[in-house]
Amino acid sequence: MGDVVYINNVKDGDGAHMTGEVLCTNCKKEWVGVVPVGTHELECPHCHTMKGVFKHHLAPISNELWACHCGNKLFFILKNDIQCCECGVITNKDEIYHGEH
Ligand SMILES: [Zn+2]
Ligand SMILES: [Zn+2]
User: Fold this and answer.
1) Cα(16) to centroid of ligand 2, in Å?
2) Could you tell me which of 80, 85, 92, 99 has the fewest CB atoms within 10 Å of its CB?
3) How far is the CA of 98 from the centre of ligand 2 (A)?
4) Which ligand is nearest the CA of 76, by number?
5) Tens digits of per-residue pLDDT, 20-64?
6) How many angstroms is it from 53 CA to the middle of ligand 1?
């Protein structure tokens, strides 16, 4: 296993938001959350605890996303390349294409 380089300077995305399915670990209510970039504590609309967690990966609210030839839109960022986390192909930004959200 190689070293992990952590991203320290997380930007707030200039008002950008993300969306995903949320589960309350207290009362088990589920809902679709829309949150500002950087948010990691979610208030449950049912029991009002801060026990909401995203069930899957968050997705940007955008109709223009980069996609691998296999259709996947989630990638690992390597030092010089990009690796698809679905099929494992290593590529770069010139070889992936815009996919519809
Ligand atoms: Zn709850
Ligand atoms: Zn792929």
Assistant:
1) 26
2) 80
3) 13
4) 2
5) 999 999 999 999 999 988 888 899 999 999 999 999 988 888 777
6) 10
How many structural domains is the chain composed of? Answer: 2
Same domain, 48 and 82: no
Q: Clarify whether residues 2 and 24 are in a common domain.
A: yes
- List the domain range (segments joined by +) for residue 14: 1-61
Claim to verify: residue 5 and residue 50 sit in the same structural domain: yes
Residue 38 CA, ligand 1 centroid: distance in Å: 21
For residues 47 and 80, the model is more confident at 47
* 1 vs 6, residue with greater confidence: 6
* 85 Cα: distance to centroid of ligand 2 (angstroms): 7
As a three-state string, the secondary structure of the chain is CCCCCCCCCCCCHHHCEEEEEEEECCCCCEEEEEEECCCCCECCCCCCCCCEEECCCCEECCCCEEECCCCCCCEEECCCCEEECCCCCEECCCCCEEECC
**Averaged pLDDT for residues 71-86:** 90
